[in-house]
Each structure stands twice: as structure tokens, then as C-alpha cells.
Amino acid sequence: TGFFTFDPGYVSTASCSSNITYMDGENGILEYRGYPIEQLAKHSSYLETCYLLFYGELPDTKQLEDFETNINNHNMVHEALKSFYNGFRRDAHPMAIMMGVTGALSAFYHYNMDIHNKAHRERAMLRLIAKMPTIAAWSFRHAKGLPFIYPDSSLSYSENFLYMMFGVPTTPYVANPSHVKALDVLMILHADHEQNASTSTVRLSGSSDANPFAAVAAGVATLWGPAHGGANEAVIRMLQDIIDSGKPLEDFVARAKDPEDKFRLMGFGHRVYKAYDPRARIVHEICHDILRELPEDSPHKAMLDTAMKLEEVALSDDYFKSRNLYPNVDFYSGVIFLAMDIPLNMFTVMFAMARTIGWISQWNEMREDEQSRIGRPRQLYMGEATRDYVDISKR
Ligand code: CMC
């Protein structure tokens, strides 16, 4: 039946070729379409980065304006989609809602969705990028029992999201400009990360010619896990446990090192980065900027303090050094979200919203490739050899 390699967890298998994102894990380098992440975080906007990821080049002024207008034209959702929210219990995890409602988009946009048609693929991307903030903010409003707020196209992408999260119909909403800026940069940092678990899932499900909204819902499902996007939520729970316990940090580091103990330092380690995650460096800086505005006795400051001390203790330990375990993007991002009053269970939703452009750009790249085939991994069968059926009376 031919020769194939055994590679659980795809540690050494390139599943595709791609022109989108470059990662050098040994040297902590991340680039989108050749542009270093540090430069994009400093100079670009999330929507400009979306354009870059999808189309391959930075837009000129007219192209960016047209793109932003197009996004604004698509930022509402079908009114019938609102009734989906009512089907969820109010204590439903917002990621469960995201998965369901994103998947439901496939029921609304199955017409004019020929995956071999470039314009159709482009429209799927515009719809997703435009609607994700609305869908995400509404998953929070549903849990809170607050009225849904419609998108305001006069606001920037990130400001509009904060408005739909925190606005109230009776009072004009004014977003904190440093929160808007920080959110936009966080969105850029999370926009793509080549063939991670959720992106590979989107590619694999899309490889069967599935509807792209359904494929992206599969990506949302995969991102939810604490080993992937769910880590940002898990980090804050861990830091809170550390603070509440009153125990020294060394106790937690010792537990993380104990092979008998399932406890891990959340927000530490990465499959590809064997150096400091370049995104974590930037997130750490923003964290300081945001927390500077808070009063000295803010619990968020205590959280950042604990995180920094934990990093110090872990990085001075041989276990972490020898395994190249450094803080990843999720280690500090949660502290920023907390300072913005984003509730804990929304953190992974924020990640999903930002990563949608990566998922759909990678899906589009796969669909553009005429040679692409359905993804079909093989296995190493370790089960029983052939045997005869035994009648139930004889078992
Ligand atoms: N705390 C303690 N030990 C760890 C950790 C950690 N966070 N991460 C890895 N190790 C150890 C692990 O026990 C193993 O040790 P040994 O060689 O003695 O068995 C060694 O380091 C290699 O770990 P691995 O699990 O084989 O590595 P992996 O590449 O399969 O897993 C990871 C990568 C990110 C899932 C893992 O580092 C982890 O679980 N980290 C915590 C969760 C987390 O922060 N995830 C977010 C990733 S970045 C955001 C994203 O892309 O979604």
C-alpha cells in the first residue's frame, strides 16, 4: 500500500506549501507576507493587515478605503441569525455560541458560494471579517441579557467591536483610545500563525470542498482548547489560583516540572518557537501601557506582577531553559483583556475573531491551488489481526 511516515502530532510533516506567513521558531521570527510582525504591530491597522494576508500585498490608499467600505457594507448579520442566540442557555460558553453561529452562516450563504469562483471566495472573506465582531459581541450580550447593539460603520473596526460589547442604547459610548489601539495591535498579532491546529483544521475541512463558513466553524472549535487559543483564559485562571493560594510561585513551578502532575504553566511553551515568542514581547509592552492608566491598587496590576515574577522564576529554572519553554502570546494578552473589562470567557472569542482572517486566507490559498487534493492522513494500525466473528452466546 505504499510508504508513509509515522508522525503523530505532525511534528515534522509539512502539510502544504504557503506564501502567507513565515515563522522561524529557532530565532523567534514571525512575518506576514514577508513583513516583520514588529513593523506591522507598530505601523499597520488590523484591517490593513487583513488585506495584506488575503491579497498578498499592502493596499494603496484607495484599495484600503474600498476594503474598509466593503467590510462596513457587510458588518450586519441577517436578522434571522439573531434567533440562534435565544436557543443558547445564558450560561453557554461564548465559544460554543461562536462555533454554532459561525457554522450557521453556511446556511445563509450557500448560494453564490462556488469555491472555485474567486469573487465568491473574496465575498466569503469580506463577510466573515465584517461579521465576526458582531457575532462575537452578541455572544457576550446574550449572556448578560443586554440588548444587541448594531454595528456603527462610522467607527474603526476595533472601536466598533468595543462599542457593540459595552455600548448602551441610552448613553453615547466613548471608547478609551488606548484600549482601541491595544485591541487593534492584539488583533494584528493574532491574525495568522501558519499551520497551527485550528488553521490546519480549516484547511482539512475545506479540502473536501466544504462551505467556507462551515470550515471556519471547525477552526473555532479547534481553537477553543486550552492547549491552543483557550490558553489565554487558562493563564488568568492559573494566575488567580496562584494569587488566591498565597503559596510561593516556586510551588507552582515545581508542580509544572513534576511528570506525575498534569499541571502545566499555561502561556508557556510552543510547538514551533524555541526562542521567545516575538508576539509575547509586543504584548508585554502593551500590557504595561494599558496598566499604567489604572490605579496602583488595581487587581489587574497584581495579576501582571504575578505573571512577571512567574516568568522570572520559570526562566531561571533549568527545566524550562533546557526545554526552551518561554512565555507565548497568551501569557500576557489576558491581562490586557481584563484591564479592558473583557470577561474571562470572552478571551478565546477575541482570539477567534482575530484569527478568522488567517483561516480564510489559508483556505483561499488552498482553493486557488488547482493541484490541491482532499486531505487524507494515513495511520499505523495497531489493532487485532483478522479474526472470526463469535456468536454472542459463545462470548
Ligand atoms: N509547562 C510545563 N512543562 C511544559 C509546558 C508547560 N507549559 N509545555 C511543555 N512542557 C514540557 C513537556 O512536559 C515536555 O517535557 P518532557 O520532554 O520532559 O516530556 C516538553 O516540555 C515538550 O512539551 P510537549 O507537550 O511535547 O510540546 P508540544 O509541542 O507538543 O506542546 C504546547 C506545545 C503549546 C501545547 C505546550 O507547550 C503547552 O501545553 N503549553 C501550555 C498551553 C499554552 O500556553 N498554549 C498556547 C500556545 S500559543 C497560542 C496558540 O498558538 O494557540
Automatic annotation (TrEMBL):
An example GO CC term for this entry is:
cytoplasm
For this chain, the family text in UniProt reads: Belongs to the citrate synthase family.
Q: Which reaction does it catalyse?
A: oxaloacetate + acetyl-CoA + H2O = citrate + CoA + H(+)
Q: Pfam families in the record, alphabetically?
A: Citrate_synt
Q: Which InterPro entries match?
A: Citrate_synth-like_lrg_a-sub, Citrate_synth-like_sm_a-sub, Citrate_synthase, Citrate_synthase_AS, Citrate_synthase_bac-typ, Citrate_synthase_sf, Citrate_synthase_typ-I
Name the Gene Ontology biological process terms: tricarboxylic acid cycle
Q: Which residues cross the membrane?
A: none
GO terms (molecular function) for this protein are:
citrate synthase activity
Residues the record marks as active site: H270, D330
Q: Which PANTHER family match?
A: CITRATE SYNTHASE (PTHR42871:SF1)
Gene3D superfamilies the record matches:
2.20.28.60, Citrate Synthase, domain 1 (1.10.580.10), Cytochrome P450-Terp, domain 2 (1.10.230.10)
| Name of the protein this chain belongs to | Citrate synthase
